[in-house]
Amino acid sequence: STVVRNFVRDFREQYKTDPSEQAFLGFDLAYTYLSGLMQFGTGLPGNMGRLETEGLHLNTRMEQVEEGSGFENRYYYILKYQDFDLLIKNPPESYFTTLDDEGSDSE
Predict the structure, then answer these.
(1) What pLDDT is attached to residue 104?
(2) Of 35, 32, 37, 39, nearest to 59 (Cα)?
(3) 8 A C-beta contact, residue 31 and residue 22
(4) DSSP 103
(5) Cα–Cα separations (whole angstroms), residue 19 to 5, 8, 11, 12, 77
(6) Which of 60, 66, 77, 105 could disulfide-link to 99, CB 3.0 to 4.6 Å?
């Protein structure tokens, strides 16, 4: 995407090397929490469950693990090869509900 190309270009210009996976993840994590602070301000801790972002390498959909505990990123990709192309298929919203209802949300 254009955003990723711009990030790589700017990173190379600033640091004289290619960005590593950690550089992408670090940017995305900072972007997630700074976006949350911009959107919710000091109310971010009480609104973590509403925090969703699209990053360069990592998208987030924060959900509380259980009442009184922390949050985890529940966003993921489903990848599919079709006609020699790699396609990203995000599951429908109802898929998360189905996993939670079955009590088995880990693979």
Answers:
(1) 44
(2) 32
(3) no
(4) T
(5) 11, 6, 6, 7, 22
(6) 105
